[in-house]
Amino acid sequence: MSAFVPASPGLSLEKTMSLSLREFEISLRRLDAAPETVGADTYRLAHGDGTVDISARALEPAVLGKLMRLPRCLITIRFSDTHDEAARRAFLVRFDLAFQRGGG
Known about the structure:
With about 100 residues, the chain is of the alpha+beta class. The chain contains 2 helices and 5 strands. It has helices at about 20-30, 85-100, and strands spanning about 10-15, 35, 40-45, 50-65, 70-80. A hairpin with a 2-residue loop joins strand 3 and strand 4 (about 50-65). It is elongated.
């Protein structure tokens, strides 16, 4: 579960995630099958009585030693003014599940 929930409606939060822009788009489709595109890197999803805007920006990869490079993106999630804390928390639970990846 996300550790931070914006205290006020209309605020946003940022997450640095280890995934490529392509992986972001795939996971986003798990969250919402048809997100509305509102910018080159921003998508709008319906949630409850409002909307959530999510954007992704590629960052420099994390370099671990000489052999491993992990892609990274800065993800920004902005809630509409109609969301209360419970709605924001519920969305973040859905977001985390959609972007969860297994390993092993």
